[in-house]
Specification:
Layout lengths: L7 H4 L15 H8 L26 H12 L2 E6 L5 E7 L2 E3 L19 E2 L2 H4 L3 H19 L4
Antiparallel strand pairs: 1-2, 1-4, 2-3
Length: 150
């Protein structure tokens, strides 16, 4: 199968650090599961009016990146956007992937680590709305994967 998120081929070399989420072995597995979870509610409130199923990854970056970090380890980095926001993505053992890159269409983002800063949960989850959205997708993933076979 082929995916459209940035770094999907590299992500095939990234593996879950434990079996907490049954059936989630690679970021592609996580992506497939999140397709059933991402929704208007999990989209950041400032972009919610623009979210629809044709752009399912819109406004999902930080919560998705920190969930991916839970599962695969590594670090979360951020790309400073022209409007001042930060777009988050993952780096695990030098493998860069961005499960929510499709929201930008054909725009080429700069994933070079020399330009981007590591992101922390303390800063991102100081925003209660963001923490609640993260907890929502995490609990939905737990619910979904608890029904999967190992």
């Amino acid at each position: 199968m082929q995916y459209n998120f940035y770094g999907w081929k590299e992500s095939l070399n990234v593996h879950a650090i434990d079996n907490t989420y049954r059936g989630i072995k690679t970021p592609c597995d996580l992506y497939d599961s999140l397709l059933n979870i991402w929704c208007e509610y999990s989209c950041t409130s400032r972009l919610r009016a623009y979210w629809d199923e044709s752009n399912i990854t819109l406004g999902q970056c930080s919560i998705t990146s920190f969930l991916a970090q839970d599962i695969f380890g590594g670090q979360v980095f951020g790309i400073l956007r022209p409007e001042g926001g930060i777009h988050c993505y993952n780096v695990v053992n030098d493998h860069v992937f961005d499960l929510t890159s499709e929201q930008f269409g054909g725009e080429q983002l700069d994933y070079s680590l020399s330009h981007n800063q590591e992101q922390t949960r303390a800063i991102h989850f100081a925003n209660d709305e963001k923490r609640q959205r993260y907890e929502y997708i995490k609990s939905e993933l737990e619910r979904l994967t608890s029904r999967m076979k190992s």
